[in-house]
Design brief:
4-stranded antiparallel β-sheet, 12 strands, alpha/beta, 5-stranded parallel β-sheet, about 260 residues, Rossmann fold, about 50% helix, Arc Repressor Mutant, subunit A, single chain
């Protein structure tokens, strides 16, 4: 089992106990005592699962979560809380956590939660790799076609093909590679995040309703309330990855993608 776990726990005894349980189960555990060390470690290494307490002094678990999810291939994140309130748990999930556990947690619950998180993360990576393989194959096929004299019909068809690049202010989307850049720096987007941005960019400043976005990103028809709930975490993650002012929420209707100077 090659599952790498980053354990972030500021209580020394709890940290030793949790590390022992996970190590005995066959996991490779890196245990750190605070959020600052966790963020630094995440910049240096990749992990399968991050298990972190929420309440810490300088850098808390939510900040560790944000650092983890900002990685190109983000780990699953499980938040540990000693405060068994529903509000804390909901806040953890809204912040992008894959799961949460209440302290003190049963060892079997801990191991089951970690195993599920690792399994979901592996499936997400498989899907992302499959999409990347398809995109690379299409790029290769496009590059291998030798130029030739096109007939009028072929020229007409070519003119009907979508443009490769969509540009909104400092944001550029590559529709062939399904990738994006902001200020010439690549953005690490999930497939849904890219589809959402492309949907908004193609609207060219028009307000795109919640339902329209969900039909594009999830290929599913839902009501307005469900659509907002589905979109919300992806919008939140996108706002962390580039200038949040570009994503303008028209309350009760949808979103507009526009550079800040355009209002």
């Amino acid at each position: 089992m090659d599952t790498q776990i980053l354990l972030v726990e500021d209580d020394a005894k709890a940290r030793m106990l949790l590390a022992a349980i996970l190590t005995d189960a066959g996991y490779h555990v890196t245990a750190v005592p605070d959020g600052e060390t966790a963020v630094t470690t995440l910049r240096q290494r990749s992990f399968t699962v991050v298990l972190t307490v929420i309440r810490m002094r300088a850098v808390d678990g939510i900040q560790v979560l944000a650092a983890a999810k900002a990685q190109e291939r983000p780990p699953a994140v499980i938040l540990l809380t000693g405060y068994g309130s529903l509000d804390t748990s909901i806040a953890a999930l809204r912040a992008g956590a894959d799961d949460y556990l209440l302290k003190p947690c049963d060892p079997n619950d801990l191991l089951g939660c970690v195993a599920n998180a690792a399994r979901r993360r592996a499936e997400q990576l498989r899907q992302a790799d499959a999409i990347q393989t398809i995109v690379q194959s299409l790029d290769h096929l496009r590059g291998s076609v030798a130029p030739s004299s096109a007939s009028p019909v072929e020229e007409t068809r070519a003119s009907e093909q979508p443009e490769r690049y969509l540009r909104v202010g400092n944001l550029t989307l590559d529709c062939f590679r399904h990738s994006a850049m902001f200020l010439e720096q690549p953005l690490h987007l999930t497939p849904i995040e890219y589809a959402l941005l492309q949907c908004l960019a193609e609207a060219q400043g028009r307000v795109v309703t919640y339902n329209e976005i969900v039909r594009r990103t999830h290929d599913h028809a839902v009501d307005d309330v469900e659509a907002q709930l589905l979109i919300k975490p992806h919008i939140r993650n996108l706002r962390r990855k580039f200038d949040p002012a570009y994503l303008v929420n028209v309350r009760g209707t949808g979103f507009v993608l526009a550079p800040p100077q355009a209002g």
